[in-house]
Amino acid sequence: MTGSGTGPWVGRSVRRLGDPSILRGEGRYVADAIAGQDCLHTVFVRSPVAAGVLRAVQVPAGVWALTAAELASVAGICPTMDRPDYVPVTTPVLASDVVRFVGEPVAMVVAASPAEALDAAELVGVEIDRTPPVLSVADALRAGAPAVHDVAFPGEVNTVVQGTLTTPGFGDIFNAAATTVTVSSGSARQSALPIETRGSLADYEQRTGRVTLTTSTQMPHVTRTGICTSLGIPADLLRVVAPDVGGAFGQKMCLAREDIALVHAARQLRRAVAWVETREENLTASWHSREQQYTLTGAFDPDGRLLALRADIVADVGAYSCYPVTFGVEPLMALSELPGPYALEHYDVRARGVLTNKCPIAPYRGVSRPAMTLALERLMDTAAKQLGISPVQIRLRNLVREFPHTTPTGLVLDKASYVETMQDAVTAADLPGFRVRQQAAREQGRLLGIGLSVFAEHTGYGTPAFGARRLFMTPGYERVEITMDPSAGVVIRIGSSPHGQGLATTLAQIIADELGIAPEQIRVVHGDTDSTPFGWGTFASRSLVICGGAALMAARRLRQQLAAIAGELLDCDPWDLVFGDGRITRPGTESEVAIGHVAGFAYLNMNKLKSTSGSGLYAEAEYDPRGTFSNACHIAEVEVDPETGEVKILRFLVAEDAGRLINPAIADGQICGGVAQGIANALYEELVYDEDGNLSTASLMDYLPPTSAEIPPITIMHRETISDTELTGAKGIGEGGTIGAPAAVLSAISDAVTHLGVDVFQMPQSPHRLHASIQEAKQEGRA
Amino acid sequence: MSRAKRDLILYVNGDRFAVSVEPRKSLADTLREDCHLTGTHLGCEHGVCGACTVLLDGEPVRACLILGVQAAGHSIRTVEGLAGENGTLHPLQQAFWDNHGLQCGFCTPGFLMLAAGLLESADPVTDDKIDDVLSSNLCRCTGYQNITRAVCAAARVMRQ
Lengths: 783, 160
What we know:
The structure holds two protein chains of two kinds. By secondary structure, chain A is of the alpha+beta class. Chain A folds into three domains: about 20-25 and about 475-625, Aldehyde Oxidoreductase, domain 4 (2-Layer Sandwich), CATH 3.30.365; about 35-130 and about 200-275, Aldehyde Oxidoreductase, domain 3; about 290-465 and about 625-780, 2-Layer Sandwich (Aldehyde Oxidoreductase, domain 4), CATH 3.30.365. Helix content of chain A is about 30%, strand content about 25%. The chains are: A alpha+beta, B alpha+beta.
């Protein structure tokens, strides 16, 4: 990695600019702000039952608490979509008449210290009349099932979103096909599980009546809008600050009801009020994700071409709708993106979101794509087996090769390398060599398997894509403001809100190349609604693409301003000037001027210039692209222990194409971290509810994120296909690792145990689940 | 629950801290709130994630599973004690920076102290031993590869 020298900077593994202070322990996460603050502390009293009528909340004398009764003036959270099948439901800030999941906040207790708040919370009495909970999709959709919300459902009770689509002529093609193949697959509930839990400090300022909410969020501006809407106050009365954020992965992009209560309490008490979530609360009552089932039927021609695809998708969305993306986020993404990288024409799909008395869902890295890719790739493997061709052949016959390609749902796949990356990975994996090793191992009683997955990762999409989903609130664009000071120092203010992705470094690399200065001269200001332009934050593999594109545009505008002045100083056409090493040079001559000199001129000597568009150096830009697609092929090699069902991943390959690599080390870091989460999803992590709706996996003794012992070495190969859909040439890369890994791992497990009559389709394939499948196959004599 | 506080002396990074804490207060909270050393982070409060790892008399411990009062009189080292006087990075910190061994940085102090406990001990350090020890803590961002790489690189530097 490099940390000094001269440009160009893009394409180099520049060391991240903010790391030394974090490494010295000087990071400032929200709990660090709280530790140094004279403030009150909060504990939320939460519902111990999954469903019931809330009869009373008794707060003893001497305890300061908020309940729904004190929040009559505060509106609940009710995100909406412009679709007739979407059923809006409201999340009250604190449960009022009904409780709908274990962990739902019922009261907020405030005291002088965290320990005293905990003591006081134990004195609060909660009376609930239990009602029968709805704990699965099957439960929720059976005739006579209780409704989780007392609202009108246009279709089945508890179905809150139902997207359908049938392409013209689907039935004829589907019914006439030579072969149909059906697979059912799915994912358990999972948690994004950032190592830093959620937390916030709401600090009331007596002088102005403003509250500053320092909170661990991915979306400071949207958080402000959401809270002010609920409280009915002007946005300027709230400043939201995202300090250092200790991981998020989607879990910190939706509005937290706890934050609304906190700001309200700070305004009532005219004091600073803090809350730090415990890990148990985080697992129980933060956000869950991924509980989805897919039934796919593919109609194939004899050569293995996928002619038509029928899909039924159902997501268990829990008890409430997340703001701003709603509980439609999982089913509707699956509906729109399921066809993936394959040249499919005929598509028939139904995707539903169904309410249950469980923790609400929110996006988690990849959202529906890990489960969606698992379904589609397992369909391809199953069809290949049935048709007697190899998994590689069937993909070669179906992958998109001509660009742009419009999918049956209207998405446009821009230039990519689906075939090429698969070939890269397959070559590196040495399939023939593996088959020899597999056979030799089997003779010793060891079960090895190999599996691959290919996918397209939708990234960097702006308002057109969110608008197409018909979200009432439509995220997408990003704005930046850039200034150069009289000493040539650059400050860029952004609406994105990075939290570990290295965006401050990659933006600085992009800007440094435009302005001919070093990345260290560029400071990126983010995560503060008082000092950054409105933006949507960091999620959906969008920040480097969208905010990076805006930064490039703004830097070019600033460069034009510098060039105009330098052109006059050097007496030449501004267009001819070359920027580099802190200087602006007239090519082919010795004639040059330091950028610092030009910057000083722009502020201090404007009277000496003939042509000027005003003093100072300032530009802004906004970027709102339609979106792009990164792509990759993952290959996993596994060993299955048939006695225990344990899976060990021996080797993991990623052949990836995210367009231009601004910083290869950061890109590889995103891939490795993503793959680790994908492996976690494939093998280990599962949120389990018992028959009463209690979460049985509410600690890290029960919910099992992998350690380094479970994550194999990951080999990464890059291609850089530049498409013309994004300004910097960089496609997003934040989610791909997580998207591709589960399908590759489950495919490899199936390859290892197929001779035993076992094929796996559900994640996680934890030892007990795989062991049971192997035993069942033995008993049925399938092997 | 008793709120009576106890006075105790902690020796942290060579400095003496006289603090007064409730007996139920964890060492992690004592370091953060009473010694104002917030580099030690809390990720799970039940001893699994290891974000709060500090050295107690040279041995890595989970500061969330030890009470402040239990650490009275002992020598504690936290992430703030790694860098040199003028902020010069410790070889481990330098290696984490050079190898992109951190993303969000929240688990990083725990990994640094876990690794410092290993690399500064008298026992011989092998790559297998490093692999084994690093599996004590959780990181959600990096996929571990660069953390392992960084610790191996630091081990080489520190052996020289």
